[in-house]
Design goal:
The protein is mostly helical. It has two domains: about 270 residues, no CATH class; about 45 residues, no CATH class. Helices cover about 75% and strands about 0% of the residues. The chain is built from 13 helices and no strands. Helix 1 packs across helix 10, helix 6 packs parallel to helix 12 and helix 7 runs antiparallel to helix 9. It is globular, with a radius of gyration of 25 Å. It is a multi-pass membrane protein. This is YihY family inner membrane protein. Keywords: Cell membrane, Membrane, Transmembrane, Transmembrane helix. InterPro entries: Virul_fac_BrkB.
């Protein structure tokens, strides 16, 4: 249960990119970034990011193995070879050999029923992933209840087949484009001109795919009336910027660190995938929090979280140091405060800025 404030819905007009830009300039980028993180934190964004990362891994791993196997069963060996080479090139350290061995086992599997079941399992996991996006988005927007079961998962299936699949495709094209290009050039005997054209177009195509699909996901996932796609594109841009930063940082770390691959050995690719999925989920919900806080400011509700009704500082310290120790700490803080004239008086629990009764 989160404690983020409820974002008021805008019903009288359709908010556009111009409205978002005006609100952003009035509110201030630094303040908006800070309050967006506060909304992310008190909307249990980190917990939902962990759950989303788990569901994402459950959909990627069996789905990839099933696709390679089905390509072999359907006598599309070239497609299977492209997938195998691209994924083995993307895997860091010793994980590439382990990934290649697993995919080869999938390619040798001739049981079409088992492969289709594996693909169905991946689709079910991806549907659950989209449902988790709705759950996290609702908490960040200050709503504690999701849609009814049939509406929630019916919408999740549609999002999994449309926005979710396109978003993953856009991310893969941008980050894994070099490995995919090498695999395509090797399997289909591409020349330098065709390979250069692929390298030139993969960035804008991948970026537009990811931006459009993320905006659609931001609009369709929360259980509320959302503003227009151009307004939500601001939050989607935050997600893409954070995602690129996290992904490049992880790639730099796994590529330059000599201990990461040696520590995990054949599990290097799995650990890298887990880290990447977790960081990607954080980027997604931070972008949602940015869009939510921007809309909340536009409606005049600038506080990102509900007031704290928890214990005072002295009440928190007392179980750790006892009543005597807590009183001594408060007295010491009063003494230090008295040496700095001009400041506000201290309360009995030692908190500055709260006058004594």
């Amino acid at each position: 249960m989160g404690s983020a404030t409820l974002v008021p819905q805008t019903r009288t007009m359709e908010l556009s990119a111009d409205d978002a830009w005006t609100t952003l300039k009035q509110y201030g980028m630094r303040r908006l970034a800070h309050d967006s993180f506060v909304r992310f934190r008190y909307g249990d964004g980190m917990s939902h990011s962990r759950a989303l990362a788990f569901q994402l891994c459950l959909s990627i791993i069996p789905g990839t193995i099933a696709l390679v196997g089905l390509a072999s069963v359907a006598h599309q060996e070239h497609l299977g070879q492209v997938l195998q080479q691209a994924l083995s090139n993307l895997a860091p350290g010793e994980g590439g050999a382990a990934v290649l061995e697993i995919l080869n086992q999938g390619a040798r599997t001739r049981d079409a029923v088992a492969l289709w079941l594996g693909l169905g399992t991946a689709l079910a996991s991806l549907t659950s992933t989209m449902a988790q996006v709705e759950r996290g988005a609702n908490r960040i927007y200050g709503m504690e209840r999701d849609r009814p079961f049939h509406r929630k998962y019916g919408r999740a299936i549609i999002l999994a087949l449309t926005a979710g699949a396109l978003m993953v495709a856009g991310f893969v094209v941008m980050v894994g484009g070099a490995a995919i290009g090498d695999a395509l050039a090797s399997v289909y005997q591409w020349g330098p001109g065709l390979r250069g054209a692929f390298d030139l177009t993969r960035w804008p195509v991948g970026f537009l795919l990811a931006l459009a699909s993320t905006s659609v996901l931001f609009r369709a996932a929360p259980r509320r009336r959302q503003p227009g796609h151009t307004w939500l594109a601001f939050g989607a841009l935050v997600t893409l910027a954070l995602w690129m930063t996290f992904t490049m940082g992880l790639a730099l770390y796994t590529g330059t660190s000599g201990t990461f691959g040696s520590t995990y050995g054949p599990l290097t690719a799995v650990m890298a995938l887990l880290l990447w999925a977790f960081l990607s989920s954080i980027a997604l919900f931070l972008g949602l929090a940015f869009a939510a806080q921007l809309e909340s400011c536009r409606a005049g509700c600038v506080e990102p979280a509900l007031p704290d009704k928890g214990p005072t500082a002295q009440e928190e310290r007392e179980p750790l140091v006892g009543a005597v120790g807590s009183a001594a700490i408060a007295a010491g803080r009063r003494l230090i405060r008295l040496t700095h004239r001009g400041g506000p008086p201290l309360s009995r629990d030692g908190d500055p800025g709260r006058p004594e009764a």
